[in-house]
Recover the amino acids of this structure.
């Protein structure tokens, strides 16, 4: 059994990759090698420059997701997450990978699993 929980490695999933396939590939690698990636960065649009070292330095836990922006509303169905950038742990990544099975929007999915939503640029 692996003595160290996190492996010190990070994944970057870009817009030209199939998100669901990549999430399952990552989870399979974690299970096969008895390790957990330290973080996962999903880029749903092209960026000219992005300081990944700063992003990877943000503290992660199994209860937090960093997103580009979030707009709140009194009605949760009208809350919107801008997911052009997502930084999350492997547990949250797995929840994202199963998003296609639920009819909710991303905000509802995070709310259902009690995941804290933080704006990535406010946290840097």
């Amino acid at each position: 059994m692996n003595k160290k929980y996190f492996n010190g490695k990070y994944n970057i999933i870009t817009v030209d990759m199939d998100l669901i396939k990549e999430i399952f590939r990552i989870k399979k690698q974690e299970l096969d090698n008895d390790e957990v990636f330290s973080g996962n960065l999903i880029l749903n649009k092209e960026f000219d420059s992005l300081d990944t070292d700063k992003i990877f330095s943000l503290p992660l836990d199994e209860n937090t997701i960093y997103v580009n922006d979030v707009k709140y509303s009194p009605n949760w169905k009208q809350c919107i997450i801008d997911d052009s950038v997502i930084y999350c742990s492997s547990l949250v990544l797995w929840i994202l990978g199963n998003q296609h099975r639920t009819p909710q929007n991303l905000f509802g999915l995070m709310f259902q699993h009690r995941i804290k939503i933080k704006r990535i640029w406010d946290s840097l």
